[in-house]
Every structure is written in C-alpha cells, then in structure tokens.
C-alpha cells in the first residue's frame, strides 16, 4: 500500500483536491478503522470519496453496491481517469468482458468493484465473492443509495433487503451505508436492515451558522473601502487577492496605515511564507493578505473575518476560503467585494485557456459566483444549494436576510418575458429577448423575423435595466433556466410554464442600489 504523510496528501495524490469537504475527513478516518458507517450527506456533497479514498488506502477490494447502471459507468470512468483501478459488473457486459474483469480483480489490479444489487446475490457472483475473499480479501462493502433498503425512503428496492446476506456471510467485513435521505425513520431502517453494528453516524450539513456573509459593491477607491472595513473588525483576518502584485501592494499599504499585516503567496520563499504564517497564527499580526490561487495550510481557529478583495474562482473555493473564518464556532464575518472589472479580468483569463472543456467549466463556475454575488436571495441558501443542500433562507446571518430588498409582484412582466422566450424557440440569450420586448430595430431582430412576433415591442414601458433585473431574478429563483455551456440561452422549465399558465406568480426583489447594478451592462 502506498504510504502518505497525511490523509490530505493522499486526497491530493489520488483525486487532486486540496481539502476535505465538511465531514469527509472524519468519515475516511473511521472507515480506515474498519468501523461500520452510516453517512448522510446532501447530494453533491461528496459521499463517494468517503469510501473511495479508504478503498485506495486499504489492502483488498472494496465492493460498491449501486442501483443505477448509468451512474456506475460514470463513477468508474471518473476513477479510471484518475488512474485508479476500478471496474463494474452488470448486465450490459458480454460474458467474455465479465471474464476478463473477473481475472483483473483476482489479479489484484482492481481496488473498487461496482455491482448492481441483483447481481450481487446471484449464485455465480456469490462464489466469485468467496474467491475474492480468499485470494485478495474484501476490504469493505459500500452500499450507495442505502435508503433503497427502506420502505420509508422514496425509492424502495426489494433487492436491497437481501444485502443483509453480505453481513451474514462476511461478518468481519465493514459495511458503509451512504444516502442523502436524512429522516430518522430511514436511518433506523438502514441500520437494522443492513445489520450495521454500532455504526459511526455522520450527518453532514455544509451550513456554517456562525459565519455572517455579505457582498459589497467594490468602490472606485477600493483600498480605502478595505481599510475602513478592517478598522471595524475585531480580531484577526485574511484578505484574499487575485494576484501576487496585489497581495504585496495591499499588505504594504495596510502596514503603512498602521494595521500589522503580512503577505503570503507562492512567489515568496518557503521560509518567508512559514514565518508570516506563524506570525499570523501567533497573533503577532492582525491581517494576512494572500493569493486565492495559493492554498494556505493555515489552521487558525479564531480567524474573525475573511475578505475577498477580488472575486473567488468558484463557489467551491469561496466556501473553502471563507470557511477559514470562525472555526472556533464564534461569530465571524465574510465579505466579498464585487466589481465588473474583476469579472472582466477573470473572463480574460478564461479566454486564454486553450482547452475548450476547461473553458466551459470555468465560465460556468464564474457564472455561479456572479449569481451568488449579485443574488438577492439568502446567501446561505445559494451556497448550500451549490452543495445540493436545501436551506429555507431567512438566516438573519447574511446581508440579504438582514436588509431584504422590497418585494414587488412582477407576474405580468414575467409572462411577457417568458412568452417571448417561448416565441423565439428558446434559442436566444437574455439581451435578445429584451431587445424583442423593447421593440429594438437591431438587424439581428429583423434577420430572425422577430419584429413580426406578437411579443415584439410589448415591453417598452420598462427599461433595459429593469428587464435585466427581472431576467436575472427569474434565473436565480429557478423560474427559467440558462444553459451553461457555450453561449447562454434561456430555456423554459416546469415553473416557467406555470407562470405562463397563470398558476404561479412572480415576486422579485426590486433593487434600487444593489449589487446587480455593479454588473450593469454585463452580458455573460
Ligand atoms: P454525492 O455522491 O454525495 O452526491 P459525489 O461523491 O458525486 O457526491 O461528489 C460530488 C462532487 O463533488 C464530485 O464532482 C466530486 O468530484 C466533488 N468532490 C468531492 N469531494 C471533494 C473535495 N474534497 N474537494 C473538491 N471536490 C470534491
Ligand atoms: Zn440569509
């Protein structure tokens, strides 16, 4: 087995990730202690890693039970892309494919084997499992979508009930049950039906309730804005910038303005960096200014504030970076500065990428950051939604919840907007829709014959700005979809049609001076 100095090093080695997400580390540790586990995490939270990493660190084969053939293929592909020995056995394979995969498994070339529950219980497979157990050993059984074992879940599958046989046949092999279903009833059922023995129960939420989130439009004199903000903060904090040059300059100016500050970035020597980090941890200095591109190994529990002077690369890193605040559970605040210039700067960087796939992902990530930054919804709701977790809002711990914007009924306008999307065949972006609504005489409109539509020029009573505010709000509220690959195109969804059929009304937060103004004139 490969040896790693830490679990983080193993994580980085196999998956390329810098950090564990909430809960993952503890789960991996317990898995390595061969404990039974029940893992409940929101969809998208990172459950797979909780059994995949232990599988790679333990001797023997981990058998993963997964109900959906399509998902199996995806997971195995992703693992193989990372150079990890993984395969699946299911009904889509020919006999000779099955044979060659079985051989690879018995040769010890495979660490993770995915199987469908019905196959697992066949006579042939049971014999094969016995062979594995003696020849390469079974490290663990991971039962994905474990709620399928429960009639109280939303997706009961009778085959799952037979999985208890695994426990009976291989009583010493630990079992990991994973699900996104969190009701007590289902949990108890899983434990009982699978015969888990005093399992470690991990219920992960991504909510950091002691953190206050806010977004400030970045002012022209942004350094002064930063200085003012830092002067109001108790305790120590981190300021993130995009470039090394910015880091050096801001650290220098803060220092000059009487705030003890050190810089931290990849351009410094290891010694200088370690020294600055130590000074920050020991509270010799109040502020550390760091590049967002450079993962900081700082574990300081009492960081009271994190300020993103520049836009983060994506919501995942925003969550990680802002999450360095308030590890001690005491109140902490996270502020993000938003400016059009920064958005343009990041877009420029994205345009320089040569790989179109990478570009596509980066654009989508940027759009998610923008949606967070200019959204009028509870910030927590937006962040947690990114991790697949539903959060009701009204948290009182974010700027949008503390100072809600006035709400107005814009149902009629939304109907006009959405019917224009429908009449242009859901093939255009927001600006074109607004041009049609406002009766623009642009060439493109005539070329498509959109000046002949019944929705042409029915929206002259509202400004471009107002239509944009509506459009963005519809997207944020999930009332219309915007495609995220290539040029963004608006698409109607179930809720859009409810609005058009007049069974759903539309309230929007009307923003006089809001962050959406910062990005005025910006059309991603
Ligand atoms: P789940 O099974 O809980 O729905 P997945 O295991 O499919 O979620 O993970 C969701 C996404 O999160 C995947 O794209 C995965 O690569 C990513 N992910 C998981 N753990 C981490 C991590 N520690 N850092 C960054 N990304 C992660
Ligand atoms: Zn909130």
TrEMBL record:
Q: Which residues form the Helicase C-terminal domain?
A: 222-374
Which reactions appear under catalytic activity for this entry?
Couples ATP hydrolysis with the unwinding of duplex DNA by translocating in the 3'-5' direction
Query: What GO molecular function annotations does the UniProt record carry, in alphabetical order?
Result: 3'-5' DNA helicase activity; ATP binding; DNA binding; four-way junction helicase activity; hydrolase activity; metal ion binding
What is any one GO biological process for this UniProt entry? SOS response
Give start and end of each Helicase ATP-binding domain. Answer: 28-200
Query: Could you tell me the keywords of this UniProt record?
Result: ATP-binding, DNA damage, DNA recombination, DNA repair, DNA-binding, Helicase, Hydrolase, Isomerase, Metal-binding, Nucleotide-binding, Zinc
Q: Which domain of life is it from?
A: Bacteria
Return the protein name. Answer: DNA helicase RecQ
Species assigned in the record: Hydrococcus rivularis NIES-593
The major lineage groups are: Bacteria, Bacillati, Cyanobacteriota, Cyanophyceae, Pleurocapsales
């Amino acid at each position: 087995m490969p040896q790693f100095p830490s679990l983080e090093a193993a994580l980085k080695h196999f998956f390329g990730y810098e950090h564990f997400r909430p809960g993952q580390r503890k789960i991996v540790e317990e898995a390595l202690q061969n404990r039974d586990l029940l893992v409940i995490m929101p969809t998208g939270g990172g459950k797979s890693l909780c059994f995949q990493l232990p599988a790679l660190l333990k001797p023997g084969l981990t058998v993963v039970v997964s109900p959906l053939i399509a998902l199996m293929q995806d997971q195995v592909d992703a693992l193989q892309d990372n150079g990890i020995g993984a395969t699946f056995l299911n009904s889509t394979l020919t006999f000779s494919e099955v044979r060659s995969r079985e051989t690879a498994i018995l040769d010890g070339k495979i660490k993770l084997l995915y199987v469908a529950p019905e196959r697992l219980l066949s006579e042939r497979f049971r014999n094969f499992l016995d062979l594995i157990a003696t020849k390469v050993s079974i490290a663990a059984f991971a039962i994905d979508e474990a709620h399928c074992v429960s009639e109280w879940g939303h997706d009961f599958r009778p085959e799952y009930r037979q999985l208890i046989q695994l426990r009976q046949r291989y009583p010493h092999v630990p079992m990991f049950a994973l699900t996104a279903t969190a009701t007590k009833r289902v949990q108890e059922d899983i434990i009982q039906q699978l015969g888990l023995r005093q399992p470690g129960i991990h219920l992960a939420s991504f909510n950091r309730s002691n953190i206050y989130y806010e977004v400030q439009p970045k002012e022209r004199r942004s350094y002064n804005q930063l200085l003012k903000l830092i002067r109001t903060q108790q305790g120590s904090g981190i300021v993130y910038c995009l470039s090394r040059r910015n880091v050096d300059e801001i650290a220098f100016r803060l220092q000059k303005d009487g705030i003890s500050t050190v810089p931290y970035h990849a351009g410094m020597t290891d010694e200088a960096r370690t020294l600055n980090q130590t000074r920050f941890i020991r509270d010799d200095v109040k502020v550390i200014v760091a590049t967002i591109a450079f993962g900081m190994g700082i574990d300081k529990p009492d960081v009271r504030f994190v300020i993103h002077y520049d836009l983060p690369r994506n919501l995942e890193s925003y969550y990680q970076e802002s999450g360095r605040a308030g590890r001690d559970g005491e109140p902490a605040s996270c502020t993000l500065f938003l400016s059009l210039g920064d958005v343009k700067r990041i877009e420029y960087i994205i345009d320089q990428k040569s790989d179109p796939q990478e570009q596509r992902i980066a654009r989508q990530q940027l759009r998610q950051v923008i949606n967070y930054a200019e959204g009028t919804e509870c910030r927590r709701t937006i962040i947690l939604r990114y991790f697949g977790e539903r959060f009701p809002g009204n948290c009182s711990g974010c700027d949008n919840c503390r100072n809600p914007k006035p709400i107005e009924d814009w149902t009629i306008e939304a109907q006009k907007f959405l019917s224009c999307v429908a009449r242009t065949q859901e093939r255009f972006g927001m600006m074109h829709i607004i041009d049609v609504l406002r009766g623009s005489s642009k060439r493109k409109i005539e070329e498509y014959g959109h000046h002949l539509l019944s929705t042409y020029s029915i929206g002259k009573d509202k400004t471009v700005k107002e239509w944009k505010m509506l459009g963005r709000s519809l997207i944020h509220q999930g009332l219309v979809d915007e495609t995220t690959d290539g040029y963004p195109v608006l698409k109607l969804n179930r809720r859009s049609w409810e609005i058009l059929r007049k069974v759903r009304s539309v309230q929007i937060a009307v923003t006089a001076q809001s962050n959406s103004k910062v990005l005025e004139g910006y059309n991603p």
